[in-house]
Structure formats: structure tokens, C-alpha cells
């Protein structure tokens, strides 16, 4: 094999011509130069209408999907809040009888001030803890009887009260975030 170097009419050697990937294309070669979009084909009007219709369909689908997701997020937030309230309600319903017994103990310990003071401190702390999670007691003394919030234990005549008015509360009621957890047990004027 002989090492010949051939030259082309443009003055480029054969070795350089074979290795043309690194060299820029010849300016006169087809497909070189700037691209002109003026030569591009314009889509037909029916194709343009079809593309616009598809675009509108996809936009509507994206908007519906976004609205569905937003509704789902809000529904999940509501359901989570309701589940938390149900859990707190269940715990509170278990604790309320203990609070009732504590009230009875305070009444029974009258005369033993140190014992009453200790029971009252425990009762107040339990009420404060329930209040921090949205559970509050209510005592409807003097209010008009409402079967949605009160449980009538006895109906008795009372001279100083209108009929249908709560004249005595046997047991306080409790609400959680405005909803009745346990109705108040009351005596109603007849």
C-alpha cells in the first residue's frame, strides 16, 4: 500500500474529504442555509378546524379534571375533620360519666373543704381539656325546652316558670363543635 495524497479541484485532499463529518457543509450543497417557513405547506381549513376542536376538547377535559380534583381535595378535608370529631366524640362519651360522678362527689363531700377543692380542681382541668378540643358543656336552666338539645326526665308544675321551660338541670349537656354530643337531662315546667 502506498501513501498517496490526492487533491481535489477545490484544493481539499482525499483524506480530508473522507472525513467530512467534522467539516461544515458546502454552502452550495442542497439542504444547507437558513430554513424558510415561507415554503411550508399551510394546513387545510378543515384540518385547522379539527385541530382547534381537539384543542378545545382537551382544554375542557383538563378543566373538568382540575375541578374534580379540587372537589375531591375539599371532600377529603371534610371527611377527615368529621373522622377526627367522631374519634373525639367517642372518647368524650366514655369520659362524661366520670365527670358526672366527679360532680356527685363534690356535692357529697360538702363540709370537707380540702376534698371539695381537690375534686373541683380535677373537674376544672377535665373541662378545660375538653374545651381545648372543642367540647363544651351547657346547662339550659331557664331556657325553653328543646327536644333536640334536652332530654326531659320529669315534667312538674311550677308557679314561677312558664310551661315548657327548663326549671332544673339533672345532668349538663355537651356539644362538640356546635353539635349535641349528649343532651342535657332536665326537669320541665308543666
Topology record:
Blueprint: H1 14-18, H2 45-108, H3 113-132, E1 135-138, E2 150-156, E3 166-171, E4 173-176, E5 179-182, E6 184-189
Parallel strand pairs: 2-6
Antiparallel strand pairs: 1-4, 3-6, 4-5
Helix pairs in contact: 2-3
Overall description:
- The protein is an alpha+beta fold and 190 residues long.
- It has a domain at 136-190: Head domain of nucleotide exchange factor GrpE (Nucleotide Exchange Factor Grpe, Chain A, domain 2).
- Helix content is 47%, strand content 16%.
- The protein contains 3 helices and 6 strands, in the order H-H-H-E-E-E-E-E-E.
- The strands form 2 sheets. A 3-stranded antiparallel β-sheet has the order 1-4-5. A 3-stranded mixed β-sheet has the order 2-6-3, with no helix packed on it.
- Helix 2 (45-108) runs antiparallel to helix 3.
- It starts with 13 loop residues before the first helix and ends with a strand.
- The model has no long low-confidence stretch (mean pLDDT 85).
